[in-house]
User: Fold this.
Amino acid sequence: MTAVHDVDFTLEYPYTRSTGPIVGPWLTGLRDGRILGLRVGGRVVCPPVEYDPDTGVSTSPDDLTEVGPAGTVTAWTWVCAPTSKHPFAQPFAFAQIRLDGADTAMLHAVDAGDMAAMSTGMRVVARFRPERRGAVTDVYFVPGDEPPPPVEADPDAGSVETTEHLIGVRIREPLFPFRARFARGLLEGRILGQRSPADGKVHVPSRGYDALNRVAMGPEHDVEVADVGTVTSFTEIAPIQYHGQTETEPWIRCSVLLDSADTTVGGIDVRHIGVEEFRVGMRLRMVWKPEGERDVSAIENRWGGITGGVYERWEPTGEPDVDPELLKDHPF
Assistant:
């Protein structure tokens, strides 16, 4: 990304849980082409629940019973712009569907084709996906009453005892003006800070205000600082393997106090200097990437200093070290 754009990223992680004695059979039924409700308190509830909603008494899998596959829409809303988390790429409806044989409505997706095809009181019927894994997305609904084609169940598949899916949230927002100016400066080969009008200290990167003196800072307080500085703290990172991890080799992450700045820039990754020769007080210089190759996509409104997308490496300047005693007020 060689230009400044709005923030747009997804925070996502895998989530695994056991299904229990009620939800497990319900998901197993969906995988095998059946929709189950639960007889509880004189009515049939779908989706089934582990506790009687009126009394709190635990329910029993012995009271599971098949419902549907058709039902009546009691309420609905149209999704014009589906996201990656929705069950369809094309527009569709979310609807409250009271399946035949059930006394409560189930919220699910209706692939109606067009919003004009949706109405309260309409009939819809289940359709099971060709590939099913024991999840609520194994089924969806379409207008009509025609029963779904028979589903071939694997007799050796066993019951669904755990469920795994990705939990995520997509965040989209414009960069704050002071963050956009900082990112634009990096693309131009300049590091911008802001000088507090209260005490004259230079903050890099700025938060748009002096937090200690509670003073706002605007474009008139922008100042350029050097791309040379002093290591104030560091750690060696040995990458732990987790979902989405791409790192395989250890590296150094450090904080650097840039010349003419009064706050440190954290999260600086150093990969071309061995940990045995790295030290607090060491003088470093940033080697920029070529102008057309700089990337500021990692910068957002709440985090992001001098991103690795704008530099090739940090290298020793050859200058004498700074006395670590002078850096004790700048550890991070």
